[in-house]
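Section 3.1: Structural characterization of target chains.
Under the original work plan, the team committed to producing a structural model for every single-chain target entering the pipeline before any wet-lab resources were allocated. The record below documents one such target. The sequence was received from the expression subgroup and is listed exactly as submitted; it comprises 514 residues.
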Amino acid sequence: MHCVARLHNTLHNFLNNREINAIATTLLIFLSLYISIITLLGENFLNPLADHPVTTTNEDVTVRTIFVVFILLVVGIIVAKLSKALRLPPLFGCLALGIVIRNIVVFEQFFVFPPFVETMIRKVALVMIVIRWGLATDVQFLYENAVMPVTIGLVTAIGEIIAVTIASYFILNISFVMSIFCALILVTVSPAVTVPAMISFKDKNLGSLKRIPENVLAICCVDNLFCVVVFMVLSSIIFTDAPIATTILLNAGTIVFGIIGGVIVGWLLWRFPRSDAPHTQFARILLLGAICLSMMIGTYLIKYSCSGFLAALITSAMCAMKWSTDNKDKIESVVSTYKYIWDSFALPLLFICLGMKFDCSTLTWEIVFLCIAVIAIGLLVRTILVMLVTLSSHINFKEQVVVALSLLPRATFQADLAPTLVLMAAPFPDMSKDAALIMKAAILSVLVTAPIFDILLNLVGSKYLSRYDAKDTPVMEQNLDKSYMNGDHVDDSIYAARPKTYSEYRSETVIERY
């Protein structure tokens, strides 16, 4: 034991040495940048400078692609700002711009780039989503209050998946397997709409007494994690020629490997760089982005994307746990940097690329109404399940409405999962037709739900959630204690502001609770 303790102390002192820590951090940065750049370019990891047949056509395509992406980015940023000025989600304007480009012949012929570039744009945007998701996840809150978020997240997601699977099978007339994929894509809640609204409510102290914003963020985390992991695992099983048993074992292994890898990388980023080192925040931003890019895009290229997804999410969440407490700047600069990257680069390009998949020439009013019917059935089932699951919880009817509305917007994951499904289904003629229809349904779900529920959530949340001032807490508690002890009349407003105990709620009827 004495030797183990000495070894632990020696290792601890070695890692905390300023010069050694700086050297190790520099090596980590260069290694992560190397891997991320190689994966983005799709080059050979061991021999990235291998000779390629160079032609004038290839050079022209590369220059044209860079120019087209730059033009789309500039126009997308402008359109996103205009949408925000009109009180619409920025993604709505970018999606509409992509649809316009796709359906006007002149624009369609000009704004063309290779499929690999479009795939990398989507994957980089997905990495930004996962990093921001992990940084926003309150692991401590989720650990201490897991019952409500996990119950609502899983029960409502599974219920909506079942409803949308049945609806798409009979209404859209697609195969059962593709109906499941359709459900997994359409039911995933959008962090791009829900998270900003919840952060706004937290800043205004709306619903803070019962921690409604924190609960909603935790519910979204559970919902997204379940749907995305199931989608990735199922796609690796369906779109392969390998035996099912082998594929399932490989997926189980990659999930375990992703979890372990995420924990190890997260622990490394706790140690490197030191919290008191020069340019700590810059090094952390660079390391987190490069490592998550390497893990997610690298595993995607070797067809085990679930492993990289879990590893990147766990790494980001672990970084948020440590970095939020170990320095005076906390984690604000890291969060604000990735928010800027998402708003200024990833969001415009992601949703423009999604809109460019929407071909109106193959669309009929019948398809539009059928897709909207499937979407509406799923939203209705989700709302009913949220209200039922939260009946015995500590939140009242108005807060139940806010929770239900927060789980209805669709946007970010639909923009990546739907094109990914189309790409994977391309070698299978029977499935590719269904995948194209699912793509249309996914785009329609973004067009319909994102602006409507973004506006409704902010309006209803501001009206239905009660404002809580922490300064009034001692006075409220004193009044409550005095009233109960002396048998005085308890003011209803004070009682309403106080979180009720489980026994008090169980003694009420459902009507009294509302």
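DSSP finds 23 helices and no strands in the chain.
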